């Protein structure tokens, strides 16, 4: 698959959306914990893992998007 600038913008947009929504989710989760919301430990752990994984995905998508915008994403050898 060949990445074009429009793919780069899409990937950067999705990465930015992930960061924005999971930053808000983190803030809300932190507030709930600070307010003493009574939840099982598994709830806090599961949601923390969800946040970390989705932010990692955002980093990967963002880097791919920036590389596509700079024109440095090449085709795989199979598709040449």
Automatic annotation (TrEMBL):
Keywords: Membrane, Transmembrane, Transmembrane helix. It comes from the Bacteria. It holds the Pfam family SCO4848. The chain crosses the membrane at residues 7-25, 45-66. This is Integral membrane protein. It comes from Nocardioides abyssi.
